[in-house]
Design a protein that fits this description.
There is one protein chain. This protein has a five-stranded mixed sheet. β2 and β3 form a beta hairpin. It has eight helices and seven strands, in the order ααααββββαβαβαβα. The chain has helices at 4-13, 33-50, 58-61, 63-75, 135-146, 152-167, 181-184, 207-217, and strands spanning 90-91, 99-111, 117-127, 131-132, 149-150, 172-180, 195-200. The protein folds into two domains: 30-75, GTP Cyclohydrolase I, Chain A, domain 1; 89-218, GTP cyclohydrolase I, C-terminal domain/NADPH-dependent 7-cyano-7-deazaguanine reductase, N-terminal domain (GTP Cyclohydrolase I, domain 2, 2-Layer Sandwich), CATH 3.30.1130.10. The chain is of the alpha+beta class. It is 39% helix and 20% strand. The structure holds zinc ion. Zinc ion (ZN) is lined by residues 15, 111, 113-114, 116, 180, 182.
Length: 223
């Protein structure tokens, strides 16, 4: 008989995701953000109390509420589809037909297996088929999908799929290079290692196009 606790422990410790979609329930948004904050506040209180912390101490009195607000409004705010960045696009009037790369996009996410931070950089590229997006749109899309309990592979794919939809082209790519604090600060405690994931759509599957993208992100931009 498989011990399900051990099985799920193993799965998470090895950062295996079971689905390309975030495992979110259908009733996820039946209750308001305010109600979620109230409920999570009690849960955090309970965790701290169980750990033996004295919640009447002024320093940690406000922690449960602070953590609950941070979960709902900030670090997991991207679970809510209503927070998705608007998809306004523009016609590529100047007929720029080359690759556009937005590199070194700061990425803050959270590992869904340990609820510890993932910190890194995302590099996103597309080749316009007549439609373009504002540059900051790419940063906003990265941020939206990052603000969930995540798995880096899934996050990389979600960014590409969303931009493919918005830009109406397959020719989108994303590379993420990130540190997982669950690996760097605990477990194996390897502070130097980082995880690289990549998703190449359409023309980016061609060796030459892929190479061009990789060369651009190596540019050491200084101002
Ligand atoms: Zn983890």
């Amino acid at each position: 008989m498989i011990d399900t606790n051990d099985f799920h422990d193993d799965l998470g410790e090895n950062h295996i995701a079971t689905s390309a979609k975030n495992p979110v329930r259908d009733d996820a948004f039946d209750i308001s953000d305010e109600r979620k904050i109230e409920l999570i506040k009690k849960d955090v209180e309970n965790i701290l109390h169980t750990l033996g912390m004295d919640l009447s101490d002024d320093s940690i009195k406000g922690t449960p509420n602070r953590v609950a607000k941070m979960f709902v409004k900030e670090i997991f705010g991207g679970l809510n589809p209503s927070k998705k960045p608007g998809s306004s696009t523009f016609v590529n009037n100047y007929k720029y037909g080359e690759m556009l790369v937005e590199k070194n996009i700061t990425l803050y996410s959270t590992c869904e297996h340990h609820l510890l931070p993932i910190i890194g950089r995302a590099h996103v590229a597309y080749i316009s088929n007549g439609t373009v997006v504002g540059l900051s749109k790419m940063n906003r899309i990265v941020d939206y999908f990052a603000k969930r309990p995540q798995v880096q592979e899934r996050l990389t794919m979600q960014i590409v799929q969303e931009l493919q939809k918005v830009l109406n082209t397959e020719d989108v790519a994303c590379i993420i290079d990130a540190k997982h604090l669950c690996v760097n600060s605990r477990g194996i405690r390897d502070i130097e290692s980082s995880t690289v994931t990549a998703e190449f759509g359409g023309k980016f599957k061609n060796e030459e196009t892929k190479r061009e993208f990789l060369d651009y992100i190596k540019f050491d931009t200084k101002f």
